[in-house]
UniProtKB/TrEMBL annotation:
Keyword Nucleus: no
Residue numbers binding ATP: M183, L184, H208, F209, R265, G287, Q296
Location of the protein in the cell: Cytoplasm
Name used for this protein in its record: Probable tRNA sulfurtransferase
Residues of the THUMP domain: 60-165
Pathway recorded for this protein: Cofactor biosynthesis; thiamine diphosphate biosynthesis
Its biological purpose: Catalyzes the ATP-dependent transfer of a sulfur to tRNA to produce 4-thiouridine in position 8 of tRNAs, which functions as a near-UV photosensor. Also catalyzes the transfer of sulfur to the sulfur carrier protein ThiS, forming ThiS-thiocarboxylate. This is a step in the synthesis of thiazole, in the thiamine biosynthesis pathway. The sulfur is donated as persulfide by IscS.
Entry keyword set: ATP-binding, Cytoplasm, Nucleotide-binding, RNA-binding, Thiamine biosynthesis, Transferase, tRNA-binding
HAMAP family given in the database record: ThiI (MF_00021)
Sequence similarity: Belongs to the ThiI family.
Length: 401
């Protein structure tokens, strides 16, 4: 059956009061951007819901796009008919036949916002339900747990029929909670952290550190592919590629072995923070998970955090690895993350990194090195690209700063 429009329900956005208009406006923009490949569709949003008018476009590919947009609770393809009970019955029958399997059950639920309609809600339920029972021998009514729930919504502009309620991504519209930098390493954890951060309405840009020749072009491409996959939810993704070789070599040569990991993470955080400031971000997101590795103990996190007062978002902090892997598989980043290309976090790994580093010691070790010159050089050499899920990586390498 050809659908006329798609009904979008907001979910959590409905709890917003005075700020709801801002959230709905951001969601509308995100939906419009996601559906730019479908120029015929028109979007109408109000405080309670959104309608995607299809104007002849097929509904299935549009539903697939909408399922990835944060801020959408559920989606229902809809048929519109005139406010005539005969038309409602015939269209309802067609719709139920599309989903019915022999022996299955159904229920009619009517919502009547147009109180001038000739039948009340019970009258519509009986008229439509009786018509379906008369024309389908192998179906029965189940009001508690039906296989098919037919929604009949009678509004002033017409009658809307739907049988599907498709789960959306939930959360808040990306961009409604500001912007942050995601430190994307190429492993399993950081893409999941990015996904969960975006689900709370945060627009992300990626910061990735690479150390040629110790890390390969394939490792860099892996991160670009991860960023492209995350752009499913962000619309597009800006990637900042930061050369880190000189800094990493200096740390390896000049910092005592047990503290090299701590210093490495501190320098990364300083660079990510400076890029954040220049691109008007409000926070930094990481894939850190408490106790997973030596640099993720509370003592290590305190020593690393000491270089900035910027909020650090750590959505994975209390999750176990199996939970993280399950999400990575759901968002299709897992197979990319496990590709065997090393990133700079795995090179120069000390044999016995400090799990309880002292801030005073790491500051003393770093004070004898002119890190400022190295940091500035890395920033000046940083490259930027924009990736989109429907495109090859767009190499827009530019002077970042």
């Amino acid at each position: 059956m050809k659908y006329d429009r798609i009904l979008v329900r907001y979910g959590e956005l409905s709890l917003k009061r005075k700020n709801r208009k801002k959230f709905v406006g951001k969601l509308t923009k995100n939906v419009r951007d996601a559906l730019e490949a479908f120029p015929s569709v028109k979007i109408h949003a109000d405080r309670e819901r959104m309608f995607i008018h299809l104007h002849g476009e097929e509904s299935a590919p549009i539903v697939e796009c909408l399922k990835n947009i944060f801020g959408i609770q559920s989606i229902s393809p809809v048929v519109k008919v005139d406010k005539d009970i005969d038309e409602i019955q015939k269209a309802s029958l067609q719709l139920v036949q599309q989903f019915h399997q022999a022996g299955g059950s159904f229920k009619v639920v009517t919502k009547r916002s147009d109180k001038s309609f000739s039948l009340d809600t019970n009258g519509v339920n009986h008229a439509v339900g009786g018509y379906i029972l008369k024309h389908i021998d192998t179906i029965h009514v189940n009001v508690k747990r039906p296989d098919i729930k037919l929604l009949v919504e009678i509004r002033h502009e017409g009658v809307f029929l739907s049988c599907e309620t498709i789960q959306g991504a939930g959360g808040l519209p990306v961009g409604s909670s500001g912007k942050a930098m995601l430190m994307l390493s190429g492993g399993i954890d950081s893409p999941v952290a990015g996904y969960l951060t975006m689900k709370r309405g945060v627009e992300l840009e990626v910061v990735h550190f690479h150390s040629p020749p110790f890390t390969s072009e394939r490792a860099k491409q892996k991160v670009i592919d991860l960023a492209r996959q995350l752009s499913f939810y962000n619309g597009k993704m800006t990637v900042h590629l930061v050369p880190f070789t000189k800094i990493q070599e200096t740390i390896h040569q000049r910092i005592p072995s047990g503290y090299t990991m701590t210093s490495t993470r501190r320098m990364m955080l300083i660079l990510a923070d400076r890029i954040r400031a220049q691109h008007h971000g409000l926070a930094i997101a990481t894939g850190e998970n408490l106790g997973q590795v030596a640099s993720q103990t509370l003592e290590s996190l305190e020593a690393i955090n000491d270089v900035t007062t910027t909020p650090i978002l750590r959505p994975l902090i209390s999750m176990d690895k199996n939970e993280i892997i399950a999400i990575s598989q759901k968002i299709n980043t897992y197979d990319i993350s496990i590709l065997p290309y090393e990133d700079c976090c795995t090179i120069f790994t000390p044999p016995a990194p400090k799990t309880k580093p002292k801030k005073e010691k790491i500051k003393a070790y770093e004070s004898s090195i002119d890190f400022e010159a190295l940091l500035e050089e890395a920033l000046q050499s940083t490259q930027t690209m924009t990736v989109h899920i429907n495109e090859t990586a767009i190499d827009e390498f530019a002077d970042l700063l």
